[in-house]
Amino acid sequence: MFKNRNLTVMWIANFFVAASATMVLPFLSVYIETFGDFSDAYVQRWSGFIFGITFLVAFFAAPLWGRFGDNFGRKKILMLTGYGIAMSILLMSFVNNVWELLLLRAFMGVVTGFIPTSMALISAQTAKEEAGKVLGTLQMGTVSGGLFGPLIGGLLADSVGFTYTFFITSVVIALAATLVAFGIKEKIITENKRTEEKKTMRQVLLLIIRNKMLLIVMILSLVVQTANFSIQPQLALYVSQLLTSENIAFLAGLAFSVTGLGNLIATRFWGIQGDKIGHDKIIFICLIISAVTFLPQAFVTSIWQLVILRFLFGIAVGGIIPCVTAYIRQKVPVNIQGEVLGYNQSFRFLGNVTGPAVGGLVAGSFGIPAVFYVSSLLLLLMAVSFYFVYKSADKSKGRKKHAVNQ
User: Fold this and answer.
1) Which CATH class, in words, describes the domain spanning 199-400?
2) Are 43 and 24 in contact (CB under 8 A)?
3) How far is the C-alpha of 291 from the C-alpha of 297, rounded, in Å?
4) What is the rounded distance in angstroms from the CA atom of residue 280 to the CA atom of residue 286?
5) pTM for the whole structure
6) Domain 1-184 sits in which CATH superfamily?
7) Per residue in 9-33, pLDDT tens?
């Protein structure tokens, strides 16, 4: 699976960073309860704020990390963000109130640039012809970590308590950053003299806005993440409506995690197919399958129907991230790839915030099944929009070739 040292090191580092970063999520609300005697509404409200603030801050920070990586070297950014995340999690073990925890989660958002920077580093050093396969392989490390992280975090919190869990988590992330420091050899790659010219942030933004395909890819990342996260806060309640058993928490966790399992299984496969027939085509196919597998979740009558559909949904979504990254690798000059990938990551982070908000509003007004209707419609509209933009870009490319030949 691994052909080079950098890919192997980054796979391992991404696994541990993703796992460690999600270790604290299962007990975040319980940790808030240790600060005092609060009402359930207070804890739920602050849990939402503290969870969302990281992604909101990261929305603004991601393009800056991408730009710094393009200009000063991505290995340096990986080390800086890795140790920064480790420090923020370590300090969480010493907080005494929700405001201190909110501040540290916000700081964590500032330094949450490790995984997108790792994608940019490997992308820049990968041939365009096999970008999908390589980036799909790297994505497997991130998804695997995200799958095992909450499970490990929950077990640690039950076994050794919150303080030691934060400490262990920070040590693991620091070790991942140290692995990058000694295991990664970064090669500065330029493709031609024209791409070596420095571009301002305004120029990079204009490049994205004026390129219809790049712009639709950014919007796509937001929509897919919004749809994916829209149901997650409501999932445990939805599962409870399907069951009368006592192990609701476990089965809700299973319904949540099985999407990641499908993602893990399929992400490299989709990347390889993108290398063969075009990443834009795979993105469109995955969008259609995502909509088709998301909608029936509103009509399930048993937990196992839900689990199967969420697994299939995970398989479809698994092709979008590596193919979007590979598409950017093919279309964007190397010296600004990190920044463009940073903007793409920003839209994904924004989806992490808008998804639960949209899902909560829809579920509160029309019931949980309505969340599946709305999110499926969003995915379908995104697929249609992507198709027309792709066809328009394809026709424009054909006209240019025809003009050159004449």
Assistant:
1) mainly alpha
2) no
3) 11
4) 10
5) 0.80
6) MFS general substrate transporter like domains (1.20.1250.20)
7) 899 998 888 887 777 766 677 788 8
